[in-house]
Design goal:
199 residues; mainly alpha; 80% helix; elongated
């Protein structure tokens, strides 16, 4: 696997971590006050910035994926695609590892025992949500890749079809002797036109 696909998969995985993280905390602490207290206690003061960065990474990853497959479709080549299982597996591995590392780091920085991750079943819920988000993301991104490739292939065929339709609609020249002489004279530059008008 070359570098570029790894980069867009990593970008999509990190955005999935942010989405799954938010859902996990919502499920582990359904009450708004309880959830805010838990987030403040575990060092989530940076979370608004993290969500913004995750959205930007999501947009960049989706754009890179769409452009890659659009170009492949327009060129008439088949861009190498991961199967659903391969893509879901890579997303899930990255997301679960990043989510776990994020939770451990947050607690180490805030001075909260790492064992607190298991309170309210936060870690098991978070891992399950990351797996679901990875599978949903894999389905969505495979669909996007196919759609982009199909649109690219339409753009590849469009010039040929347009030329054929224009050639079919082009009017045939008139076969009238007087008009033919005038048309031949007008086909040149300005001086032949002046010569015709002086005859």
């Amino acid at each position: 696997m070359n570098r570029r696909p790894f980069l867009w998969i990593a970008a999509l995985a990190l955005s999935g971590v942010a989405a799954g993280h938010s859902v996990a905390y919502y499920l582990a602490a359904p009450g708004a006050g309880q959830r805010q207290a838990l987030l403040a206690q575990t060092g989530h003061s940076y979370w608004n910035v993290a969500v913004t960065v995750a959205v930007l990474l999501e947009l960049a990853g989706v754009f890179a994926l769409a452009v890659r497959h659009f170009r492949a479709g327009r060129a008439g080549t088949s861009s190498p695609q991961l199967t659903f299982g391969q893509l879901a597996g890579r997303l899930a591995t990255m997301q679960v590892a990043a989510f776990t590392a994020l939770e451990v780091t947050e607690r180490l920085r805030s001075g909260v025992p790492v064992s607190e991750m298991f309170h309210n079943h936060l870690l098991p819920i978070g891992v399950a949500i990351q797996l679901l988000v990875a599978c949903a993301g894999a389905l969505l991104f495979r669909w996007l890749a196919r759609a982009a490739a199909a649109i690219g292939s339409l753009f590849a065929r469009m010039p040929v079809e347009r030329r054929a339709s224009v050639a079919a609609r082009r009017p045939k020249p008139l076969d009238i002797p007087a008009c033919r002489t005038l048309c031949d004279a007008l086909r040149g530059r300005a001086p032949p036109l002046l010569a015709v008008s002086l005859r």
